[in-house]
Amino acid sequence: RKEFVELYVNYVFNESVRKPFKDFMQGFLRGCPAGTWKMFLPAELQIVLQGQTKFDWHLLEKNVTYRQYKKLDQTIRNFWTVFHKLPEEKKKMFIAFLSGSDQIPGYGLEHFNFSIVDPQAENPDELYPFANTCRRILFLPR
């Protein structure tokens, strides 16, 4: 029985996927040569490929630059009060809205910079917030 179980497990987890995995590996290595990835430890490679998974959202607030706003303006204080009360998933959705991706690059939030700009609309109540994802600019009407 023991031999049967060992052979069966070996077949299911190794032999049955050998050909598909070999094909996948060839395609993967064609686009991502192995020599490039050898310098990373597995945890580091995961961060490079997936981005950061743990966030200190206060670092994000510290790295913002303001145009036509000051840090203590009521609109900015209201924005950060609401932002910090959001659940984690909504904060990631904001990052996606701002940058086009809900992933934070491997270097982390301490280097993730963006700007909050007043679009200076004549009637700001008729304007929704919008973003320039290429430059990470949030246009936040007063």
UniProtKB/TrEMBL annotation:
Family annotation (SUPFAM superfamilies): Hect, E3 ligase catalytic domain
InterPro entries: E3A/B/C-like (IPR044611), HECT_dom (IPR000569), Hect_E3_ubiquitin_ligase (IPR035983)
Keyword terms: Ligase, Transferase, Ubl conjugation pathway
Signal sequence range: none
GO MF annotations, alphabetized: ligase activity; ubiquitin protein ligase activity
Annotated EC: 2.3.2.26
Catalytic activity: S-ubiquitinyl-[E2 ubiquitin-conjugating enzyme]-L-cysteine + [acceptor protein]-L-lysine = [E2 ubiquitin-conjugating enzyme]-L-cysteine + N(6)-ubiquitinyl-[acceptor protein]-L-lysine
GO biological process terms, semicolon-separated: protein polyubiquitination
HECT domain ranges (all copies): 1-142
Leading EC class: transferase
Active site, per annotation: 134
Pfam family, one: HECT
Matching PANTHER family: HECT-TYPE E3 UBIQUITIN TRANSFERASE (PTHR45700:SF8), UBIQUITIN-PROTEIN LIGASE E3C (PTHR45700)
Stated name of the protein: HECT-type E3 ubiquitin transferase
